[in-house]
Amino acid sequence: MIKLRSLIHSSLITLTLFSASVCAVEKEYMLKAGFLYNFARFGHWDYHLESLNEFIICSPDKYFIDAANNALKSRTIKNLPLYNKLITLDKVTTSACNMLFITSDTFIEWQNITPLELKNVMLIGETDTFIENGGHIRFFLSSGKIRFEIAPKQLKDAGITMSSKVLRLARVVDR
C-alpha cells in the first residue's frame, strides 16, 4: 500500500511538472505570436498586401499554431483576415505564407531546405544561428524576457522593410 501511494505521489508530481512546462511553452508561444502580429502590423512588403485575400502566418510547429490561434483570434493585418497555418517545409508551401515562424523544434527541418530564396516572406526563428541561416528576425531571452534581433538587410533582400519604431526596440544585426 505504501509503495502504491509513493508511486501515485511521484506520478502526480511528474504530471504537475509536465503540465507546468506545457503551460510555460504555450504562454511563451502566445507572447511570440503577439510579437509576430506586431511585426506584421509594422512591416512593409514590396507588393501591396491589399491585393491579397488574407494574411497568413505559417509554422511547421503544431504547438505554436495552436497557441497563435488562441492569441490572435479574429485579428486582422492591414484590413486582411489573419490566419495561422500549420505547414510542411517545402518551397511551394512556404512561398504561400506572409510570415514563417521556425521554432527550435523545427529548426533542423528548416536547415535541410535552406538556402531557400523566399520573396515577400518574413522569416522569424528562435535558435542561436537562425539569422546566420537566412532568417530575418530571431527571438532570444535576456534577463528572463523575450527580446528580438533583426537583420534589416536580409529583410530588404526578401522585399520587406521594418518600421523604425520596431527597429528601435530590436538588436539590429548586420549579416
Description:
Keywords: Signal. It comes from Pseudoalteromonas distincta. The structure is a single chain. With 175 residues, this protein is of the alpha/beta class. The chain has one domain (27-172): 3-Layer(aba) Sandwich (Rossmann fold). 43% of the residues lie in helices and 24% in strands. It contains 6 helices and 10 strands, in the order αββαββαβαβββαβαβ. A hairpin with a 2-residue loop joins strand 7 and strand 8 (145-150). It is globular. The termini are far apart. 30% of the residues are buried.
SSE inventory with pairings:
Elements: H1 2-42, E1 43-45, E2 55-59, H2 62-71, E3 76-77, E4 80-86, H3 91-95, E5 99-102, H4 107-113, E6 122-125, E7 137-142, E8 145-150, H5 152-157, E9 160-162, H6 164-169, E10 171-172
Parallel strand pairs: 2-4, 2-5, 5-6, 6-7, 8-10
Antiparallel strand pairs: 1-9, 3-4, 7-8
Helix pairs in contact: 1-2
